[in-house]
Amino acid sequence: AISWSPDSVRLASADKNGLIYIWNAKTGEQMGGCLRGHKQWINGLAWEPYHLNVECRRLASASKDTSIRIWDVILGQCIHTLSGHTQSVSSIKWGGTGLIYTGSHDRMIKVWKADNGILCRTLSGHGHWVNTLTLSTEYILRIGLYDPQNQQKLNGTSSEEIREKVQKRYEQIRLQNERLVSGSDDFTLFLWNPETGKKPICRMTGHQQLINDVKFSPDGRLIANGPGKLTKYAGIDKRFDGQSLATSSLQLAHDLTPNRIASRPRIGVTCTDAWREEPLGFYVDGNRHVSKMPK
């Protein structure tokens, strides 16, 4: 696992020995000693969002040893150990409201308070391993204080002014609540409102194999699952092979509005009643990357 801090100053990496290293992003040198505590390999890392802590010093890790740990990377200490999962913790996200979301091979998704490590709620519904999680605010949290439009960091007279700008940008994407999508070995996706609810908003079907990845679009309005569909949706093709992310012409566009939303019967629905043929599968009309559409 590997993850950049929101201020781009540090890079965290984790290995199969259960060790975490923090690196200086400019020099490539290790910062402090390694973080020890996990008994098995680490599957995921997540930094605290910039608008919650401008020091970017707290990092969460998820491990096969069934635990989640929250670290202070400056002190090199574990602040909290979160226990509750019964199998490997496969995915972790740190939300913009101070909640941490974890998915596990025990088929559960758990919501934790980052400040004290207390379990808020457990989301259940998947019939097999939970492999991947994504937040509707993930893109805006990941870029932190960076302004991709102007390709530079946000300007401000103080760190607090910059923090307020980052938080304002986050609130514009978050709207009423952060949404979470989970992908599983049971071939399904679930859409959740994890800040307040335990029941899924909807269950999305159609895959004929396990789901290893899912992502929201940068504006939080669209969901793409599987790396092939994601790159096709984003228009990423072989032209960008080997290009540096810092100098590439690849840009993420905002405020795209589809001309028409089409509908059709859902794929993979096996019930035998009238609902099987109801047009409850919605997609952007003309999108060739929708499952089972003519390519």
What does the model show?
By secondary structure, the protein is mainly beta. Helices cover 10% and strands 32% of the residues. The chain has a four-stranded antiparallel beta sheet with strand order 4-5-6-7, with no helix packed on it. A hairpin with a 6-residue loop joins strand 18 and strand 19. The chain is globular and about 60 Å long. 34% of the residues are buried.
Summarize the structure.
By secondary structure, the chain is mostly beta strands. Helices cover 10% and strands 32% of the residues.
* Shape, per Cα inertia axes: globular
Care to count the β-strands?
Answer: 21
Number of helices: 3
- Written as H for each helix and E for each strand, in order along the chain, the element string is EEEEEEEEEEEEHEEHEEEEEHEE
Strand order of the largest sheet: 4-5-6-7
Q: How confident overall, as mean pLDDT? A: 86
Question: In what range is the share of β-strand residues?
Answer: 25-35%
Roughly what percent helix?
A: under 10%
Distance between the termini: 35 Å
Using only CA atoms, what is the Rg?
Answer: 20 Å
> Unreliable segments (pLDDT under 50, ≥5 consecutive)?
none
Structural class, judged by helices and strands?
mainly beta
Main sheet: strands, sense, barrel: 4 strands, antiparallel
Give the SSE layout.
Elements: E1 2-4, E2 10-14, E3 20-24, E4 42-47, E5 58-63, E6 68-72, E7 77-82, E8 89-94, E9 99-104, E10 109-113, E11 119-123, E12 130-135, H1 138-143, E13 146-147, E14 152-153, H2 159-174, E15 180-184, E16 189-192, E17 202-204, E18 214-216, E19 223-225, H3 227-233, E20 261-264, E21 281-284
Antiparallel strand pairs: 1-2, 2-3, 4-5, 5-6, 6-7, 8-9, 9-10, 10-11, 12-15, 13-14, 15-16, 16-17, 18-19, 20-21
